[in-house]
Design goal:
The chain is an alpha+beta fold. An eleven-stranded mixed β-sheet has the order 3-7-8-14-11-10-9-22-23-21-20, sandwiched between helices. Strands 16-15-17-18-19 form a five-stranded mixed β-sheet, with helices on both faces. The chain is globular and about 85 Å long. The protein starts with a helix and ends with a strand. Bound molecules: ligand 87F. Ligand 87F binds next to helix 6, strand 11 and strand 14.
Length: about 575
């Protein structure tokens, strides 16, 4: 199709593309459409969104001449969910699958996850955290041992009830999280203060059978994560661990994904019910004006220790209950990264998580053949690899340079290195930066160092730009009247809060913000099941000054802190 389109363009023919897929089928851009089972979850344009409404009968988008069939069909500002789907499919991160809420992570996204894993493993090792692997199945007795913890989550637990034709004597659950799988073993292993601290991590998949609309990476029924679980002799030690894990999560977002986050405490209402205190990092998605929980780190107190009898003899021989933590980071990180940085051409990757950081594209012509350009390109590749850069020379002769530019742009490769006849003559290369489109020419000597410093610059600048955008959507208010109008401007809102035990006021804000939004004629998006109600995201660690006598925005009671609100995923 790409070649056909190029041919028509050359002939000056304007092409209209008619897709023959049935209504509800994934469009032709999703390769999975050709597989036998019908792919699920591909978003469809919502009523009143996109071109479908403005031009009756024109539900299929017109592909402009010169664009290949494999180009993005939606703009980020035009229809954010459709744009997101375009990006993750065209970049070859995701393929759709015939079970709702489940997606194929293709090598391009899986490599990104591996880069996160490598970095994270490198950070937890010096903290004394060891990797391990526990079974994915949990018996009903164990899963339901800690009632508080499963309560509320129960509808999401998936059960295996049969093998072949025979019913299992007792159904077994697929892990939604591993507290109840790991802690009986903790109880076995921990007898004395000498057995502490115990710090384990596991990389695995978990299953949570959610009924809200799924979104690849952000909300899926099966996802990949790491879960850390630790046990300590004292509360203070456990608290150090909680904050170390959260700091790593902040760094995953900011240093790898180039996404700024706000670290803080969850309120009593939003914390993990099984624990003592939850800390979180919260990110902002400009395309939807929504917040998203990035990752959480819990201080479990002694709740699980009591339930699973995780006790030890201290130095004096007294029996004590262990203090525990748990913390988790998921493949959601990748979705947030795509949503924050992607543009109308496709994916834009920060170098730290780019499977390829630089792609070398030769410009072949009659006067400059593959044979002539290849040694030059290979020497560039060698220099890049020697500098520790993930690079590739795209020497395929079945595609022209324009096709390759488009392909690697869609995949978000941070730097393209173009090599043409003039470059070979002059001993130069042309660099094109994906995130800004900026072009510049450089000497081929020292190209490893040049590209390295460009990558560092891109990484820092992408974070700085994302932070600027996030900060411009962060407002501090002290009167309720401004609350919903600020949400409507896609802002996160920091307000004074009475805090503590006043959970009912949090519910009040949720209800009230929803009512006031719908009163203005907005419709709640039934398709994505994303609520227009605001909820608390966190009580930021970094607290602005709270003048004496400041009142809670909701209750009017004396405020005890600032809390961050937003519509969220
Ligand atoms: C769904 C079904 C059953 C979340 C669930 O955050 C149980 C649960 O316990 C459940 N969904 N949770 C909370 C998970 C807490 C905690 N686990 C370790 C984390 C980080 C990693």
């Amino acid at each position: 199709p790409a070649d056909l389109m190029a041919y028509f363009e050359k002939c000056g023919v304007e092409v209209h593309v008619q897709e023959f897929a049935k209504k509800g089928d994934a469009p032709a851009v999703a390769p999975a459409a050709s597989s036998k089972g019908k792919p699920k979850d591909k978003p469809k344009p919502a009523k009143g969104q996109g071109k479908a409404e403005t031009k009756p009968g024109a539900n299929k988008k017109k592909v402009k001449a010169g664009k290949t069939l494999l180009a993005m069909q939606w703009k980020k500002t035009e229809n954010f969910p459709m744009w997101y789907s375009d990006v993750i499919v065209l970049s070859e991160m995701i393929s759709y699958y015939d079970i709702s809420g489940c997606y194929i992570l293709r090598p391009w996204s899986y490599k990104m996850w591996e880069l996160v894993q490598d970095w994270f493993n490198g950070q937890i090792r010096p903290l004394g955290v060891e990797n391990s692997y526990f079974p994915m199945f949990v018996s009903q007795d164990r899963l339901e041992k800690e009632k508080d913890h499963v309560e509320g989550f129960a509808p999401e637990v998936a059960w295996v009830t049969r093998s072949g034709d025979s019913e299992l004597a007792k159904p077994i659950a697929v892990r939604p999280t591993s507290e109840t799988i790991m802690y009986p073993a903790f109880a076995d292993w921990i007898k004395s203060h000498r057995d502490l601290p115990l710090k384990l991590n596991q990389w695995s998949n978990v299953v949570r059978w959610e009924f809200k609309d799924p979104t690849p990476f952000l909300r899926t029924r099966e996802f990949l994560w790491q879960e850390g679980h630790t046990a300590h002799a004292t509360y203070d030690e456990s608290q150090v661990m909680v904050r170390q894990a959260l700091e790593l999560y902040r760094r995953v977002y900011e240093e790898l994904m180039a996404v700024p986050v706000i670290p803080g405490y969850k309120t009593e209402k939003e914390k993990f019910a099984g624990g003592h205190q939850t800390t979180t990092v919260e990110a902002y998605i400009p395309g939807s004006g929504r917040a998203i929980q990035g990752a959480t780190s819990h201080n479990l107190g002694q709740n699980f220790g009591k339930m699973f009898d995780i006790s030890f003899q201290d130095e004096q021989g007294t029996s004590k209950i262990a203090w525990q933590t748990s913390w988790g980071l998921t493949t959601r990180t990748l979705g947030v990264c795509v949503m924050v940085h992607g543009d109308d051409t496709g994916l834009v990757l920060p170098p730290a998580v780019a499977p390829l950081q630089a792609i070398i594209v030769p410009i072949i012509s009659k006067k400059c053949t593959f044979e002539q350009v290849t040694p030059y390109c290979e020497s560039i590749l060698k220099q890049l690899e020697d500098a520790g850069i993930r690079a590739k020379y795209d020497d395929r002769d079945v595609y022209n340079p324009g096709w390759k530019y488009n392909h690697w742009e869609q995949k978000g490769v941070p730097i393209r290195i173009e090599v043409g006849p003039r470059d070979i003559e002059q001993g130069s290369v042309r660099l094109v930066l994906r995130y800004s489109g900026e072009k510049s020419d450089h000497k081929v000597e020292g190209i490893g160092d040049t590209v390295k410093s460009q990558l560092d610059f891109i990484q820092a600048d992408m974070l700085a730009k994302a932070k600027e955008t996030r900060d411009s959507h962060l407002v501090k208010i002290t009167e309720w009247e401004k609350f919903v109008p600020e949400l409507e401007k896609h802002n996160l809102v920091l307000t004074p809060w009475c805090g503590g035990e006043h959970q009912e006021w949090e519910e009040w804000v949720k209800t009230k913000s929803r009512e006031e939004t719908l009163k203005d004629g907005d419709e709640e998006d039934e398709r994505t099941a994303t609520s227009v109600a605001a909820k608390t995201l966190c009580i930021p660690f970094d607290q602005p000054e709270l003048p004496q006598g400041t009142k809670c925005i909701a209750s009017g009671l004396p405020a005890t802190c600032w809390v961050l609100w937003g519509r969220s995923y």
